[in-house]
Amino acid sequence: MRHTLLCALAILSVLPASGAFAEEKPAPIALTLDVSKAGPTIDRHIFGQFAEHLGEGIYGGIWVGKDSSIPNTRGIRNDVVAALKDLHVPNVRWPGGCFADEYHWRRGIGPERKPSMNANWGGVIEPNTFGTDEFFDFIGQIGSEAYVSVNVGSGTPGEAAEWMEYMTADKADGIGAERAKNGHEAPYKVAFVGLGNESWDCGGAMTPDFYVDLMKLHARFVRNYNPAQTMSRIAVGPSGGDTPYTEAVMKAWKDHSWAWNIEGLSLHSYTTGGGFPVSQNSADFGEKEYAVILKDTLGMEDLVKKHGAIMDKYDPEKKIALVVDEWGAWYAATPGTNPGFLMQQNTQRDAVLAALNLNIFARHADRVRMANIAQMINVLQAMIITDKDKMLLTPTYHVFHMYVPFQDATFIPVNFDAGSYAYGGVTLPRVDAIAAKGKDGKTWVAITNIDPEKPATFDLSAAGLKAGKAVGQTLTAAKITSANTFDKPNTVSPKPVTVKASGGHFAITVAPASVTVVSLEQ
Ligand code: AHR
After folding, report:
1. pLDDT given at position 22
2. Spatial CA neighbour of 283 closest among 337, 363, 213, 357
3. Beta-strand pair 469-475/514-521
4. Interstrand relation of 190-195 and 232-235 (parallel, antiparallel or unpaired)
5. Is the torsion defined by CA of 42, 43, 44, 46 positive or negative?
6. How far, in Å, CA of 417 to CA of 15, rounded?
């Protein structure tokens, strides 16, 4: 018996590496770019950020105060500003979130600030040290635009209108003069104004019809007085797949009179892998949880289609943008932290998650013209984590950085067989990709390999494109749980990627659970 087995093994060892006994090398995935069918512009505003007065999102994360030993410019930390400048952050949504519907702006201007309670987030004292003028100083330092959410829930249209006057009116105007007295003579530019936040829940638990009436008052009276800036008004829209707000706001808009208008409808959808209260661990998870979270996040595609179809019914010309102004992963708070501060770790899984969502927004660029990841610093799926004087860039930061060339780029359709990856009863596409013609004239391709076990090899080609080389970066990690820490801040960071070019084809192999961005150049 033993002899027979040895003979069989000897025969196998001399067989050529083909046929039933050899491990088959999978054929490369053909990824073709249809350069002749250029699509809409991928609005740079889909790369927007969200900074709420929540935990250490503002205090500690942005604001350290003028007297801090942490290097700062007028109280705003220099390391954070430098990192954010590199992201070309197009807009920052502020001051909330749920916080916005309890924010009274007058407490946050002038030499005397009146503290308040942050009842939504940890019940801590909000010192109001970071107010309107500090926010505009911050976005000025990082080179971004303002997306200000006014208080519709516990404020009045008059309070919101006066805030707009403070921000945008000439100094000859009584309230504009207050701003000038506080150190800023020129009116600020407010590119976007949010008319409330989650009015179906923390913003006041309003019925859609009640909200629509309040929203119209705000859309009418919350005026922009600065002719140097057009301002888009964004109404509260749906939570996840719920459609009553989408229907009510869009129907009202279709019949709107000259007296009011809006330019955007908000959608909020978080990736939790199981609804609320959240329970998934941000740092310590296995392949099952990896698959569950990414399956959940890919649901964004259906949400955009679902709400987009309702919007098409009332607005076939797509005048109103779908603004996904809260998205990202929301996990259980890091043990030992204040649960009201929503602090969580950010891993390679989150890099993949970010890329998949950005790809969805790009594919629906005709309707999704703005989005804001929640949130910018120290909160939920953050770009940056700080601890006193220390700062680190998360894997999500690196994805946003690698995707900068897609800002205002022209979408190029791509064809590929996404295949499938399955684990523990959860099935997902194995890979994802988008392409675009950048404002720099280069053709950019982003590839995500969802499969955490197997690399993927692609054969990229584009008929009619004169390109002889491809260069780019890839974000890979040893494990799906790999993260950057203050001790090892560069565990997950982009590396140059090798692409073999030959006869108009580009061969590229990407690692498991990775995000890669390359440009095809002459
Ligand atoms: O981003 C955290 C919170 O999530 C926001 O304040 C709120 O709008 C949403 O429920």
Report:
1. 47
2. 337
3. antiparallel
4. parallel
5. negative
6. 32
> Is any atom of ligand 1 closer than 6 Å to the C-beta of 326?
yes
By the 10 Å C-beta count (0-12 exposed, 13-18 middle, 19+ buried), 176 is classed as buried
SS3 call for 475: strand
Ligand 1 atom nearest 375 alpha carbon? 1
CB of 268 closer than 8 Å to CB of 303: no
Chain segment 335-345, per-residue pLDDT in tens:
999 999 999 99
374 lines ligand 1 (CB under 6 A): yes
Q: What pLDDT sits at residue 15? A: 36
CA 362/CA 57 separation, integer angstroms: 27
Query: Which neighbouring-strand residues pair with 60?
Result: none
Q: Give the residue carrying structure tokens 């705000």.
A: 218
263 ligand 1 Cβ < 6 A: no
- pLDDT tens digits for 41-78? 999 999 999 999 999 999 999 999 999 999 999 999 99
Best residue among 50, 53, 98 to mutate for probing ligand 1, ranked by most atoms within 8 Å of CB: 98
Would you say 190 and 226 are in contact if contact means Cβ atoms under 8 Å apart? yes
How far the first Cα of the chain sits from its last, in Å, is 63
Question: Which atom of ligand 1 lies nearest, measured to the CA of 100?
Answer: 6
- Chain centroid to Cα 40, Å, comes to 19
Query: What six digits make up the tokens of 168?
Result: 């945008």
Distances (CA, A) of 430 to 101, 375, 423, 449, 451: 41, 28, 11, 6, 5
Kindly state if the Cβ of 96 falls inside 6 Å of ligand 1. Answer: yes
Residue among 428, 495, 135 at smallest CA distance from 294:
428
How many whole angstroms separate alpha carbon 423 and alpha carbon 271?
18
52, 56, 162, 198: the active-site residue: 198
Q: Assess whether 165 carries a catalytic annotation.
A: no
Query: Position of tokens 């109103």?
Result: 320
Any catalytic annotation for residue 453? no
Residues 210, 94: Cα–Cα separation, whole Å: 24
Q: How many CA atoms lie within 13 A of 113 on its CB side?
A: 16
Distance of CA 423 to the CA centre of its chain: 27
Find the 250 Cα to ligand 1 centroid distance in Å: 23
Intervals of the chain under pLDDT 50: 1-22
pTM (predicted TM-score)? 0.94
Whether the link from the prior residue into 512 is cis, omega within 30° of 0, is no
The DSSP code for 439 is T
Residue 392 burial (CB count, 10 A): 21
Location of structure tokens 């569950």 = 292
